[in-house]
Amino acid sequence: MNNKVFKRNRENLMESIEDNSIVILFAGNAPKKSADERYQFTPNRNFYYFTGVSEENHIVVLTKINNKVDEILFIKEIDEIEEKWNGKTLRKDKATEVSGISTVNYLNEFEGFLNKKFSGAVEINLYLDMERDSFDSLQGKVGNFAVKVKSRYPFVAIKNVYPKVVPLRLVKCKEEVEEIQKAIDITIKGVNSLMRNAKAGMKEYELEAYFEFTCKSNGVKDYAFKTIAAAGKNATILHYVDNNSEIKNGDLILFDLGAQYNYYNGDISRTIPVSGKFTERQKEVYNAVLRVNERVINEIKPGVKFLDINKKSRTWLAEECMKLGLIKKEEEVSNYYWHSIGHSLGLDTHDIDSPTRDTVFKEGMVWTVEPGIYIEEEGIGIRIEDDVLVTANGVEILTKDMIKRVEEIENYMAK
């Protein structure tokens, strides 16, 4: 993306930050995997959102002192020996070109810079990305850095920048939507390839390979998440990722998958009959899920609360389960549906959101809609997931080119 996007993101953040404050964000680094092998690096998404820089170990510092905002990017020093093994790292001119930050220094200047800022201030706030998955989450680099700063500069007030980032990332700009759409379009190509090649006797991972080949053939370097390719009863396990069972004749196979393009994600679920034809019971359950999928999509618009949509979708799925003869009371729906109706989508698949998920839909948000019914005793698991962009009056379905009606699926597979 053009660096104007990252500049605008930084400007929006610093407008919400009070005077005499410093914001520090870390790119992160790839942890050790085994022996001398490391996991594939992927940048901290908040760091990337404000810089566009995708290499590890870099640091961005945004200061607001006497209501004047300054930006500095600290990058790794050049190590020509290491570059013979792992390739060239970011240069200062390229860092400026990517991020739009004109002042770029090396990491060995970072601590001296901080000392000057902290020592020369009577009262200063330090904003760090302090998001935690749980109370027991490991401290991590940011937490350790906060402890070090507090021990050396006890007068510095350490604050969490994460709540200020949430409303910014929730609403996508035009350029972000374009990246998400590219990821979705590649995902659709991959699903079409799966459908063309599905047949009984295959292993789930063999069919998954068609999706991966299509993605890589279209420039995808990573995926939104580990692909779910779940046939028969496996589809009733929400996050089934073993993908190693044989697909039997008469099975439905549920795919939940997504390509990642420039760190933005697509996320689609489709359920298809491996034989090319739904049985009457499979069709009955499938259409029940499809009706809820379409009802939810029609309900989303600016001003509507996610929690209200989530509650309605649960009621609607309960009504469908009653019609299917699965339950007699609404509260029994948990036996056949136990997840929420969707989530924000963007730089993360389960994208940034308010901790209580009390989001009110706004124009520019991108959301998934994914009702499902999972009947273990019948070996039927069905989920239909679309990605939608909230517009001024409703939504635009970003996955509109991915077929989902029974007749469309059967006709496509018949070809």
Entry summary:
The protein is of the alpha+beta class. Helix content is 37%, strand content 20%. The protein has 12 helices and 19 strands.
Describe, in plain words, how this protein is organized in 3D.
- The chain has 415 residues and is α+β, with helices and mostly antiparallel strands.
- 37% of the residues lie in helices and 20% in strands.
- The chain has helices spanning 3-15, 45-51, 80-86, 92-99, 110-119, 140-152, 162-170, 174-197, 204-217, 280-299, 306-323, 406-414; strands at residues 21-26, 32-34, 37-38, 59-65, 68-75, 104-106, 124-128, 156-160, 222-223, 228-231, 252-257, 259-261, 264-265, 268-273, 366-369, 372-375, 380-383, 386-390, 395-397.
- A 6-stranded mixed β-sheet has the order 6-5-4-1-7-8, sandwiched between helices.
- A hairpin with a 2-residue loop joins strand 2 and strand 3.
- Helix 8 (174-197) packs across helix 9 and helix 10 (280-299) packs antiparallel against helix 11 (306-323).
- The model has no long low-confidence stretch (mean pLDDT 96).
What is the helix content? 25-40%
The N- to C-terminal Cα distance equals 38 Å
**How many E-type strands?**
19
**Which structural class is indicated by helix and strand composition?**
alpha+beta
* Rg, nearest Å: 24 Å
Largest sheet: 6 strands, mixed
Strand order within the widest beta sheet: 6-5-4-1-7-8
Strand fraction: 15-25%
